[in-house]
Design a protein that fits this description.
Elements (H helix, E strand, L loop, with lengths): L1 H5 L14 E5 L3 H10 L5 E6 L3 E3 L2 E5 L3 H4 L5 E4 L13 H6 L5 E4 L8 H9 L9
Parallel strand pairs: 1-2, 1-5, 2-4, 5-6
Antiparallel strand pairs: 3-4
Length: 132
């Protein structure tokens, strides 16, 4: 976009969403809307909610499956509010379980820590909680 705005041609290659595995943490209204937007890109969406269940699209994993699913995620999308139940969701263990080239993002505005801030704190050995 910046090259186009400047009137220059700056071709670059970026990874596609196709054939990537997305771990969607939070499967309420926002999570379902995110999934609907990801599926046309030929992604595999692993859905995680508070409690395990099944629906017309298959299995929705329960929260206790998070550590089992993180190593398979190319992309993690956090679609839950930051509150007393999720405050410590992203911690050193969470980051350690993700594949080396994986990325994560939140769908919510608010005090969620940025991925850059978490990685910086992890490298510095100063990681009690991502939001402190």
């Amino acid at each position: 976009m910046r090259a186009a705005q400047a009137g220059t041609w700056s071709p670059s290659w970026h990874q596609s969403l196709a054939d990537r595995t997305v771990l969607l943490i939070g499967y309420g209204g926002v999570g379902r809307a995110i999934e609907a937007r990801l599926l046309p890109f030929e992604t595999t969406v692993l859905r995680l909610a508070q409690h395990e269940r099944s629906d017309d699209r298959g299995r929705v994993y329960g929260r206790d499956s998070l550590n089992e699913l993180l190593p398979f995620a190319d992309i993690v999308v956090i679609a839950v509010p930051l509150d007393e139940n999720t405050h410590h969701l992203v911690d050193a263990d969470f980051l350690a379980l993700m594949p080396e080239n994986a990325c994560w993002s939140t769908s919510r505005a608010g005090p969620w820590p940025t991925p850059r801030r978490c990685w910086r704190r992890l490298r510095a050995g100063d990681y009690a909680s991502p939001s402190t």
